[in-house]
Amino acid sequence: PALFMENARKGSIVSRANSIGSTSASSVPNTDDEDSDYHQEPYKESYKDRRRRAHTQAEQKRRDAIKKGYDDLQAIVPTCEQQDFSIGCQKLSKAIVLQKTIDYIQFLHKEKKKQEEEVSTLRKDVMALKIMKVNYEQIVKAHQDNPNEGKDQVSDEVKFNVFQGIMDSLFQSFNSSISVTSFQELSACVFSWIEEHCKPQTLRDIVIGVLHQLTSQLY
Fold it and tell me: Could you tell me which residue ranges the BHLH domain spans (predicted)?
């Protein structure tokens, strides 16, 4: 009986040990099964990453636009194609491109102003020639109407020389004081010019001066 009791006690201890081991094993997570069933979620771009990427793209577009602008300037401005010998075939820097562009724009402004002055001078010449043309036509018409009047006294050549001298003298003051930019300015300048340079005493002095000059040339 004692041996039976001893064997029974050992069997009970082994049974409890197996039971405890089974319980402990069941309480431990089955990592293999969970790993097999786990699926990793795809990476989601954060708001900060999206802003950084958008800023990078905008900055690249801005740099591309600036580069295109400098390339266009270098292609348009003639002086950019004429590189210095010290630079050789190297690409012009942005500072040089800007400076050459500024110089070229200033040159164009000067040329434009010069051309405008030349056009203004030519308009004055045209206006004076038109006035002279009208006066010459009146002289020719008067001569055709009275071909024998004053023929024995003064020749047509002398008359023409006197008239030309008077008109040349008047044209000097006309050219220096008349503006033909617009019709209003022309009208205002013409009236003021007539009041100042076409006074009877002024015209008398001009005629006397022209006659003295022709007399000295003829005699």
Answer: 50-108
Q: Which amino acid is at 46?
A: S
Distance (Å, whole) CA 4 – CA 22: 27
∠ Cα 137 196 189 (to 5°): 70
pTM of the model: 0.41
Total domain count, the chain = 2
For 26-55, the pLDDT digits (tens) are 444 554 444 444 455 555 678 888 888 899
Range of the domain at 212: 157-218
Distance of CA 165 to the CA centre of its chain: 48
Closest CA to 84 of 93, 76, 71: 93
Q: Is residue 21 part of a domain?
A: no
Identify the burial level of 104 via C-beta atoms within 10 angstroms of its C-beta, where 0-12 means exposed, 13-18 middle and 19 or more buried: middle
5 lies in a domain?
no
